[in-house]
Amino acid sequence: MTHRVAVLALDGVLPLDLGIPARVFNEARAADGSRLYSVGTCSIGGRPVRTHEDFRIVVEHDESLLETADTVVIATQEPTPQLLATGTLPEDVTAVLKAIRPETRIVSLCTSAFLLAAAGLLDGLRATTHWTLCEAFSDLFPGIEVDPNVLFVDNGRILTSAGGAAGIDLCLHLVRRDHGTGVAAAAARRCVAAPWREGGQAQFIEHVVPQDADRSTSATRQWALERLAEPLTLEDMARHAHMSVRTFTRRFRQETGLSPLKWLAQRRLAHARHLLESTTLPVARIARACGFGDPVALRRQFHTYVGLSPAAYRRTHGVPGVAAGR
Question: Minimal CA–CA distance to 301: which of 323, 283, 315, 278?
Answer without folding.
Answer: 283
